[in-house]
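User: I'll paste a sequence; please echo it back and then give the predicted structure.

Assistant: Echoing your sequence first, then the prediction.
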Amino acid sequence: MRLKGKVALVTGGRGGIGRAICARFEREGAAVYAADLNEGGSLAAPDGAARFVRLDVADEGEVKAAMAQVEADQGRLDVLVNAAGIEIEKTIEDTTLEEWNRSFAVNVTGTFLTSKHALPLMRKAAAVGPSASIINFGSYDGFIADPGLAVYCATKGAVHALTRAMACDHGPEGIRVNAICPGYIDTPMLQSFFKGEGSGGGGQTIDQLQQAVRDVHPLRTYGTPDDIANLVTWLASDEARYASGQLWVLDGGLSAQVQQMRL
């Protein structure tokens, strides 16, 4: 088991990707805390043995309380996964200041706060093991852009820059920092995108939109939460002891091609 004896906290732990990460971490032997706004999350019901921690990542008081709980229970934190995130399907012209601020509060400030208050616990873990690991969630939309996702793209670009800075600052302490940059992943967020204005549906059915998205990928499919969990597990493990400061794109080859050249 790759994570035997490790302690992990996953924000957005009851969402599509977060839930898959928690389940995989448990199978790999970790003690896992699933942190989210509610126990049901974006799916129908909780599953797995991960301990649930109520957490709004944009609330510093709640972040401190969550880390205090981990410290009381475990005394250290080996792995932090910042998977909590929201998406707004609008141009900047149609985005309100409140929506802009909330997006940055969750996607960027949340990553900042959880990482900031996890660091003392992660230093304890790094002192007795090869390293501790922070895994942030960026997006391929932090490199290129989808129409109608202006604020989301901006937040993910910020997470990418923050990841590199954290890796430089805390690498000497034995804390590795990386970011996963997913493309299209089959989650409740993606299904919401298919139904929303950002899909550019033009009257197509959901099935037609889903197939169109599959077809635009070189691999002719989009990803699953388990695909993401596979890479996250490696980055959390000691096998990745030399991996830090990197943006790991997992998008089925989508961003490798020139889209306008597809005929």
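Confidence is low (pLDDT under 50) at residues 42-46. Helices lie at 16-27, 60-74, 97-128, 150-170, 188-195, 206-216, 225-236.
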